[in-house]
Amino acid sequence: MSNREISAQVFRAVSDGMVKKLASRLYTKNLQDDPEVIVRRHWYELLKKYYPDAQIADRTALENSPARDGSVFIISSKKRKTELPGLIFNPRKGHGPLESDLPFISDLWISSEPRALLENMRHSRALKGSVSRTLSREEMEVKLDKLFRQKGADHVNRIRDKALEIAKKLDVMQEFQKLEELIGTMQGTRTSDLKSDVAKARKWKEPYDPDRADLFLRLFEDLKATAPDTGSAKNMSQQERVNLSFFEAYFTNFIEGTEFEVGEAADIVFRNVIPRERPEDEVFSGLNRKYCH
User: Which residues of the chain have pLDDT under 50?
Assistant: First the structure.
């Protein structure tokens, strides 16, 4: 960032093509990358420059990065919004860091997880072309479900208890009641409307991992679009055909639940040995002899 002491040097550097201007008083020696890329790469350093007392809050405290439109939501004594290429700093008034809040990069502060959840229980509206300051109800459900999946119900309950302490300090008991009701509903102990599929599934004791579900769906689509590469069994000797048939039958039965060691299966098929402990599995012998001879 430029200031009075170096403004003349910066002006000459711009004239000589050594640096380029990104925004008011903001310059870079990186002449290759787009301004948006450069600014987003250094968003937390720039935040400290523009808002030295900033505390990262609201949706940014849960997402740990700028929103899709470049918005970064903070608590600061400064009131004016700052717009940079690909980045928007959005300050609001609020209580400074608590003991439970966490230090962040570049000597910044970020709301603790319980506090951030409370902050995001406040309703906010998205202005045209921008994201809302807080997460929507559905986004909050997805966020909580992820906490349940990754860290367990005990962790979520501890967060709720800590959020109660913070709510009393910040006088945001209304937000805590909403959070408590949402957590309770997802655990099946409260009744309120749920928006997301993952939250509804958790309420009915049928939780699932949406990330894994998406991966399996993509795998299914890829497999469906790919023709199987079948190997040729031509020009095989009689013994090779017997071995191939044996192992095909062995693994087919194994998958279906008939489990033997390979040696046991070979005794059953080729030497007609009936297991002393499992005489009912003689069917396995007859089936495999059909394929192997």
Answer: 282-293
